[in-house]
Write a structure and sequence with these properties.
77% helix, mainly alpha
């Protein structure tokens, strides 16, 4: 399996257009298997990194006389958290990541279809799962993960364009509607909720009621 995955990783990182063109006939089970292995890899490293941070926090708390953090809990409870929280993170990444990609695939294909893509949901799913490779390989690393996310977005553009055989403009439209638009909506809702809480709930109070 690794022999088949490594060329994909190299191709999507350094020569994405040609790699997507060569992936048009890939079977769905092959794509899902590649995504599953890399998602497992990401989950393991993310959980291990979380465990390392918690363990370092535990050592710093145990070695200081201050309060807060893990030092406010018993050593036994803190040690349990060091192991339990990473395990929870591991399964959350596996299950949540799989479900999210399915839902996001359906959401993206809606816009693909509305903007003229007619090669089926399977190709949209392939484009999305393959585009996640940078995030799954490098996304667990602080700071580098941010650049991996940017490359994932670029790969999504290439993937939808090549596998759905759409124009650049229509593909950009798909990206804007499926990715950028939800982010903008979430940011607006977050800002409105902060303003609402900061105003004590008076933001949406009718004008007549405050006279």
């Amino acid at each position: 399996m690794l022999e088949a995955i490594m060329p994909k990783i190299k191709g999507f990182l350094f020569d994405p257009v040609v790699t997507f063109q060569n992936s048009r006939t890939d079977e769905t089970r092959t794509v899902i298997s590649c995504f599953g292995v890399l998602l497992l890899f990401y989950a393991v490293l993310a959980a291990a990194f979380e465990m390392l941070l918690l363990f370092l926090s535990f050592l710093l708390s145990a070695g200081s006389a201050g309060t807060g953090g893990m030092s406010s809990q018993s050593p036994e409870t803190a040690l349990v958290m060091v192991f339990v929280l990473p395990v929870l993170l591991f399964f959350t990444v596996l299950v949540g990541g799989s479900l999210f990609m399915l839902v996001f695939g359906l959401w993206t294909h809606l816009w693909v279809y509305l903007l003229g893509g007619r090669n089926g949901f399977r190709q949209t799913l392939h484009a999305i799962l393959y585009s996640m490779i940078p995030n799954l390989v490098l996304g667990w690393i602080p700071l580098i993960g941010m650049f991996a996310s940017i490359w994932t977005l670029i790969l999504m553009f290439f993937g939808i364009r090549e596998l759905q055989e759409m124009s650049d403009g229509r593909t950009i439209g798909v990206i804007l509607l499926s990715v950028i638009l939800p982010i903008i909506i979430l940011v607006v809702l977050f800002v409105l909720s902060i303003v609402y809480l900061a105003s004590g709930g008076g933001l949406f109070t009718p004008y007549s009621s405050i006279q």
